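We now fix the convention by which a protein and its fold are recorded. The integers have meaning only within a learned vocabulary of local backbone shapes. A complete example follows; check for yourself that the lines match position by position.
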Amino acid sequence: MAEAARVIPFNKLDRGDVGLVGGKNASLGEMAGKLAEAGVRVPDGFATTADAYWELLDHNGLRATLDEQLDRLAAGAPLADVGAAIRAAVLSAELPAPLAAEIGEAYARLGRVAGRVDPEVAVRSSATAEDLPEASFAGQQETFLNVRGLPALLEACHRCYASLFTDRAIDYRGRMGFDHLSVALSVGVQLMVRSDLAGAGVMFTLDTESGFPDVVMVSAAWGLGETVVSGQVDPDEYTVFKPTLDKPDLDPVIHVRLGGKKRKAVYGEEGLTRTVDTSDAERRSRVLDDSEVRALAGWAVAVERHYGTPMDLEWAKDGVTGEISIVQARPETVQANRRSAVLARYTLTERGTPLVTGSAVGEAVGRGPVRVLDAPVDLDEFPAGAVLVTSITDPDWEPVMKRASAIVTDHGGRTSHAAIVSRELGVPAVVGTGDATRVLAEGREVTVSCAEGDEGRVYPGLLAYEESHIDLAELPETRTKVMLNLADPAAAMRWWRLPADGVGLARLEFIVAHHVRAHPMALLHPGRLDEDDRARLDALTEGYEDRAEYFVDRLAQGVARIAASRWPDPVIVRTSDFKTNEYARLLGGGPFEPVENNPMIGWRGASRYYAEGYREGFALECRALRRVRDEMGLTNVVVMIPFCRTLTEADRVLEVMAEQGLRRGANGLRVMVMAEIPSNIVLAREFAKRFDGFSVGSNDLTQLTLGVDRDSEALAEVFDERDPAVTRSIESLIRDAHAAGRTVGLCGQRPSDDPEFTEFLVRAGINSVSVAPDSFAAVKRHVAEAERRL
């Protein structure tokens, strides 16, 4: 604990000094003094104390003024009038001479440390009721960058003191139950990092949307960090997997998304900052390479471990020295305070064509009339329950934001001001749409959905939706494993709290269609495409010199996010099972796919993997899976082969996989096979010698056993997984597989819809069932009840 004074260097502070210098400055002191051995770099600086703030008030007789104005607010006076009056009184007051002198002495010391007179500094507000576990107060007070010279520094400090009573700060303290006159303000003064010549951003030690704790989320943009925090830019986003972070032979960066980064903040010509356009090269380039991302994530984990709580940190890279530093750290409050025992889930029960899309923040649905604003308005001008649509938000917007049913912005990423505040308020937000203020008409009724993965969508009209609550503590234990069917990597982490036994089906074709979006053979042989498709392919793969690497990289990152979400439980990844007509719809797919009369039983699944027409494409799939397992270290990935008709075909596929470095048994690799063809049932014992387990594909098994087109409306009554021919096939498979020491699972919708079918599976001895996440709780209960009866 530091001793009372007007000004204290960071290295004399620790986290016990929140009451003396506020949460922000206490954290900087804690890191500077306690985490240097872990490699965490914090720029030097100092803080004014709460005693200095009270001295300012008493020196100028301001306590009576504050009391008077706050009494006016309590009596109904407009917040804007009260805030303006208090700020004017503070700004007109005189800084006590002893305080100004001590600030000057500390600033001179910083100059000596930096080796130059009048160094540039960042001047930040740090309230004594800030960065607490129960309330963050993030962005409530002012920050000034590139402040140079003592007169400018004293003015910035003075303006920070006044900012304790911004309208948003007064509103937030009132909402959170803090006494205005019990909160003091400290000013932090820190040597500037020349990130105007490089980049800066923020990072969280968990996934900000779901609270998933095993990742570090790093956001980065060019220039000073204010553009990321304020939401002016769409930043790069890097996801780092914590469990492999300390293993130098593995790559823990499991996902990279390049943001638009159209603007950056740089030093102003006469002090402070200005915002300019970025170059085309900057927009196309990563701000950080993998080694820098990994270093930052390592620091973040060290800080989290030291504090014992998830953390929200700001970082900056110096464009002169190349060094990266942590410039702020605070506890993460939104996910940390969320009840973990109950999951609320929202599902749209009708759909439409989205008017705009962007990044989804939160996992809810909001509806209401559009209110398009370019600046905050008085609360009586914003009807409660309206959808706020604006370019960007900053802390001045918060009183309006808390009245909104949803928020939509043109700019910003998942760590922008709009994103952070909407999470805290529990309001769904779609950020970074690009053109919402132009497309969404004032007064139009819309539905804002953040319940469909990482892409948020704004639909026309008031669409119907369902809200469900899952009490995880009440879910029963079961001997039969209940797993998840997951397809979208972007949505995988939001289900991490479900006590599932892993992923029973992750479909590679979904990732290819939605995240790769190009036919692998087209990437390898672009010369066979027409001019228009080649141009589209060039645009899609921009930044990749090797188009094959584009496919492998995108596919690997998609699989890795799903695998990470359930680590270390098994994640069964089914290799691609497009039909030829579906493959043909991918970008560039037409020249590589034959036209078949019945694609459902045509050239699909295993038959493609060793054929000359797709063998190279399957090799890219194998490269991606090998990267996930061997380079990223996610060895919980289990490979599953679909639609494998014969034993000879099984041998040929396993041989091709081995040639591509995926040899069954190597590095613990398990290879399973779908059981969806009668031959898989009849020859179960022989297939069991080649594979480590079976997964029943009930739709195809029913179709091929009964000879029924599963998509035929005329035969809908005949298509029934409960037909004795199908159920006896499943019983036979389980019996033969178990005799050979192999497991059998089933992935499909039927257990979700039919408790009797679930009971049949349990009675037959199925090892696992895999269902959609929103069906998990119901199926878990059905399985438990079936086990109880048996």
Remarks:
- The CA atoms of residues 628 and 634 lie 6 Å apart.
- Residues 131-137 have pLDDT under 50 and may be disordered.
